[in-house]
User: Fold Metalloregulator ArsR/SmtB family transcription factor from Agromyces salentinus.
Amino acid sequence: MTLLNVTDISSAACCAPLEREPLGADEAVALANTMKALADPTRLRLLSIVAASADGEACVCDLIEPVGLSQPTVSHHLKILTNAGFLTRSKRGTWAYYRLVPGALGRVGDVLGA
Amino acid sequence: MTLLNVTDISSAACCAPLEREPLGADEAVALANTMKALADPTRLRLLSIVAASADGEACVCDLIEPVGLSQPTVSHHLKILTNAGFLTRSKRGTWAYYRLVPGALGRVGDVLGA
DNA sequence: CAGATCTATCGAAGGCTGTCAATATCGAAT
DNA sequence: ATTCGATATTGACAGCCTTCGATAGATCTG
Assistant:
């Protein structure tokens, strides 16, 4: 399964700020994989919509219309974000609710030297 | 010329922190383009090597061996980083020196809610 | 159980990306 | 002027990504 190297969970907590010292090859790959999860307009919108949702969570059905893509595509993006450690999934009934992982985005921000 | 939507200079200063409010479609595309420039292991290493270099700058010839790729490929990545607003290029003689744009990485970090 | 609904997976199509070898460009030095 | 050295550009190729329609799985309702 190729699929954007899905399975880099929490690689966000990989290393010192970028400007401190040269990244090793492995660290660079790990950080790049994390950034790839964020390097898509739809996924960025999904994250921001989930973050702004009441109770801090949203089901797939809430996300399809705002981003204007098919349901399979939305599920696909949510899976990538979840595997990258930015979202958690919890199923209640037939609905799947997605929620931000606290601090996950912030850790990436820290590495960029904010 | 497709080439990674080269020409999104300084789109890093695009918007409020991701978790504040839903990203508009245009903002999302701009931010994603900026993130795409960072979503590659080689480019991340190039940034960190330049940052750690004496005098804060490095020429292409200094970067080829550390990343282990061909000279055209290194030039290609440097161009993407420059067009994305993370590096500046200054030519002295036959050498091209690259330098970090102060604050560029930090602004991206801020958007991620660091 | 049957039907309806919500979500995930599969398979395919098209476009984009990273990489290289070859070549062009530009400046320096003989 | 010619040659040499450092970068950038071009052209090509393999692999990956986004997207969709079709389908399967799971859960509630009647």
Observations:
- Residues 73 and 105 of chain A are 22 Å apart (CA to CA).
